[in-house]
# Entry
Amino acid sequence: SAINYLRCIEDKLNDDKHFVCRRITSSNVSECLKNHLLNCTRIVQSNNNVFDVAYTDNFDFNISYQIFDNYGLLLIVDNFINGDYVENALGLWTENQEMVRAFINRFDYGWNQIQNIEIKA
# Structure
């Protein structure tokens, strides 16, 4: 689904209807995302659409989520300000079952990985 999302952005940038896309990302990205960013940059060189990308390795946030009875997902982004204050006004609620299932699978995978780590005293 991520590749389809990236293709959709490229299609929108290729479209005649004015489209602006700006992205902030880490400099440490997958080859697939790197190619996508290069494609987007090339596409807008031949039209009036806008694609800007900024790279930073100083993201200062945490993402947490809660799943409610396999029905709903609350995704919360905590932004650290000045290293000590946490602002968490950014949240997303969804009842999209594909999204909920994806986060359940993500949690289950992560939990299994943690359980396999031997803790040495």
Notes: The CA atoms of residues 71 and 97 lie 7 Å apart. The longest strand covers residues 72-81. The two ends are 42 Å apart (CA to CA).
